[in-house]
Design brief:
The chain has 358 residues and is α+β, with helices and mostly antiparallel strands. It has a single domain, classed as Malate/L-lactate/L-sulpholactate dehydrogenase, NADPH binding domain (Ribosomal Protein S8, Chain: A, domain 1, 2-Layer Sandwich). The chain contains eleven helices and 15 strands. The chain has a seven-stranded mixed sheet, sandwiched between helices. It has a three-stranded antiparallel sheet with strand order 14-1-15. A three-stranded antiparallel sheet has the order 11-10-12, with no helix packed on it. Strand 8 and strand 9 form a beta hairpin. Helix 4 runs parallel beside helix 5. The chain is globular, with a radius of gyration of 20 Å. The relative contact order is 0.17.
């Protein structure tokens, strides 16, 4: 390969349990405790199960690189720095994002059970992975939940030709009528950085309007694409800017300005996060709430479908169906991702999993 071509061939299909065991073994070998390694593995595989492959096991080599660079701490000492009846500030000590955000979910839920609403702020973590994992878990505990995370600039600010804000994701989940969650999980960009990285690795083309190259010019070449464009122009970049304010600036860990100004700290991989939990039982009957969610979903799905649409889908509905299908049939892993995982496994002395043709 010349470094730009993805390995050819069909995707392999791997069970979720196999991927979890593999990912856990890799992160343990990288220095994490068994419990922490298992949490990170579960969060990544959950994303694959829902079809969000950009936030799944393709992230394993990147996480390992962050550990090697000293940006992700495999043995963090996570501490609560301040606390009120309804809020908590968590210093994550550069923990893997799934570890810090799992702690945030637990702390926010604890506060919500006492005060009705709980806020957990997370300072100094790393890539938070799929935020929907944490909000949907809170929803299954009877909470409505909101999560956001902030990172260094990787997305163009509307009207600029350079990265000025992060593709800051946001997720909202509520309990639904099926003992699960109605789940919104989205980024503020037209496309995520993970999606661009995936397109580069598998050699896929990207459409116009997704990204700029390093010089700020529009491009449809996945290998040249470096700066995603904001969703809905000023709305996406404005939302990302405000997420930086309510996460990073509140916890005195600025990311965007440090990066743009070129400070040494601004070039390090750093993220901050926020999770809000609302205890539905403190404000009404949870069963009534679930029934009203089911009623709302049924009403919206009964609307006349647009021309060319066969079905009106709810937030997270495709992901829920993919979860069921992949839990049964396995998770497809493209050859380029498999090759990266194989190389890392060989380096660490971790047995590679067996493959089935896709």
């Amino acid at each position: 390969m010349n470094g730009t071509e993805a390995p050819a061939g069909p995707a392999a299909v791997v069970t979720a349990d196999t991927l979890r065991r593999f990912a856990t073994a890799v992160f343990e070998r990288a220095g994490m405790s068994g419990a922490d390694a298992g949490i990170v593995a579960d969060v990544l595989v959950w994303a694959n199960l829902r079809g969000v492959d950009t936030h799944g096991v393709m992230r394993i080599p990147r996480y390992f690189n962050l550990i090697e660079a000293g940006d992700m701490n495999p043995r963090p000492v996570i501490a609560v720095r301040s606390e009120t009846p309804a809020s908590v500030l968590i210093d994550a000590d550069r923990a893997a994002g799934p570890i810090a955000m799992t702690r945030a979910r637990a702390e926010a839920a604890r506060k919500a059970r006492n005060a009705g609403v709980g806020l957990a702020l997370v300072r100094a973590t790393t890539h938070t992975a799929a935020l929907g994992y944490y909000t949907s878990a809170a929803a299954r505990e009877g909470m409505a939940a909101i999560a956001v995370s902030a990172s260094w600039p990787n997305m163009a600010y509307h009207g600029a030709r350079a990265a000025g804000v992060s593709t800051s994701p946001i997720s909202i989940a509520v309990p639904d009528g099926e003992e699960d969650a109605l789940l919104l999980d989205m980024g503020t960009g037209v496309v995520s950085m993970g999606r661009l990285a995936q397109a580069k690795k598998i050699g896929a083309a990207i459409p116009a309007g997704w990204a700029l190259d390093k010089n700020g010019n529009p491009t449809t070449d996945a290998h040249a694409a470096e700066i995603p464009l904001p969703m809905a122009g000023p709305k996406g970049s404005g939302l990302a800017l405000m997420i930086e304010c309510i996460t990073s600036l509140i916890v005195s860990n600025p990311l965007v300005a440090e990066f743009i100004e070129g400070t040494a700290e601004g070039r390090r991989h750093r993220q901050n996060g926020l999770l809000i939990a609302i205890d539905i039982a403190r404000f009404g009957d949870p069963d009534v709430f679930r029934g009203e969610v089911a009623r709302l979903v049924k009403a919206v799905k009964s609307l006349p479908a647009d021309t060319g649409s066969t079905e009106i889908l709810m937030p997270g509905e495709r992901g829920k169906r993919t979860f069921v299908q992949r839990t049964h049939d396995g998770i497809p892993i493209p050859p380029a991702i498999l090759e990266e995982l194989r190389i890392l496994a060989m380096r660490l002395g971790v047995p590679m999993f067996a493959l089935s043709p896709g």
